[in-house]
Design goal:
Layout: E1 36-38, E2 43-45, H1 46-55, H2 73-91, H3 95-100, H4 104-107, H5 113-116, H6 127-147, H7 149-169, E3 174-176, E4 179-181, H8 190-206, H9 212-227, H10 233-251, H11 258-283
Antiparallel strand pairs: 1-2, 3-4
Helix pairs in contact: 2-6, 6-7, 6-8, 7-8, 7-10, 7-11, 8-9, 8-10, 10-11
């Protein structure tokens, strides 16, 4: 049986076998139920909606990040990497940990460890990864949409590197009977988390929010780092300083230059971290 329709019957351009007496308010073409999209008045076809979205200028937040709806994808990705890495630490019985942890003694020859240590956690105390992932989830829910994905990624990665640089700068090589060593060895995303804590303070103030709670949280966790053995306060301090600096710069970038500052600030901070690490190694005679 033929499915041809009379020439005067309106059909959907995308689905010619479907009769539609509903027309797009923008282009006037018929649109079947599958191709209809609600508009302020009436409906629009899917093609017009797509065209309008391409022409529309992307909206930005008060601190210059590109406004997006939906889930904090970057935060979930970092959490996923940490969880997978944690499972590999357990499965390999420490080999994965030894390969990617950071200690000043190995960082000079294997600089990627400045970053990779942030994705490892203690396998003897599960609270380590649980607390860090929860803190990352909470802070990421706020910062990622406000800063935008690019700035947020830069903040996370540079805070992680800054934590390792903090360990490097605040420690010195020691001569032992077995030879020179330089520690401590560190793992964990807490330096990155402290960077997010630090960034929240100037960002909240820029948005006229109350930063008292986050300041109190930083103070409490900072004191714990000094009192509880096995916690690297050096990493926390390094991440905090980097995070605060980036957060302040992002929050106070001049209107019209926020995108430029979004690239220049992370680049400048990255260069300073590299220069500080090289200067420390050179001063200790390790270069």
């Amino acid at each position: 049986m033929s499915t041809d329709l009379p020439a005067d019957v309106p059909v959907c351009p995308r689905h010619p076998d479907r009769v539609s007496y509903v027309r797009c308010q923008r282009c006037g073409r018929p649109a079947c139920p599958e191709c209809q999209r609600p508009a302020a008045v009436g409906i629009q076809c899917v093609d017009c909606v797509r065209q309008a979205s391409k022409a529309a200028r992307p909206t930005t937040t008060a601190v210059g990040g590109r406004a997006r709806r939906g889930q904090p994808t970057v935060t979930y990705t970092i959490i996923g990497i940490c969880v997978v890495s944690f499972l590999l630490q357990i499965v390999t019985q420490g080999a994965w940990t030894s390969r990617f942890l950071f200690a000043p003694v190995v960082g000079v020859d294997q600089p990627w460890r400045f970053l990779t240590a942030a994705f490892l956690h203690s396998t003897s105390f599960y609270g380590h990864i649980l607390f860090n992932m929860y803190a990352l989830y909470i802070t990421g829910q706020f910062l990622e949409p406000v800063l935008g994905r690019a700035r947020y990624i830069a903040l996370c990665l540079l805070s992680a590197v800054g934590a390792s640089v903090g360990v490097l700068l605040l420690s010195n090589p020691v001569l032992t009977p077995a030879g020179w060593t330089w520690g401590p060895a560190v793992v964990g995303a807490s330096g990155m988390v402290f960077g997010l804590f630090g960034a929240m303070v100037p960002v909240l103030r820029r948005l006229q929010g109350n930063a008292a709670q986050i300041i109190g949280l930083i103070a409490i966790n900072g004191v714990i780092g000094f009192l509880v053995p096995g916690i690297s306060w050096q990493a926390h301090l390094g991440g905090l300083v980097v995070g605060f600096a980036l957060g302040y710069g992002f929050a106070h970038a001049p209107r019209g230059r926020q995108k430029l500052y979004g690239w220049l600030l992370p680049t400048a901070v990255g260069v300073l971290l590299v220069a500080a690490a090289l200067a420390k190694y050179a001063g200790a005679g390790w270069l």
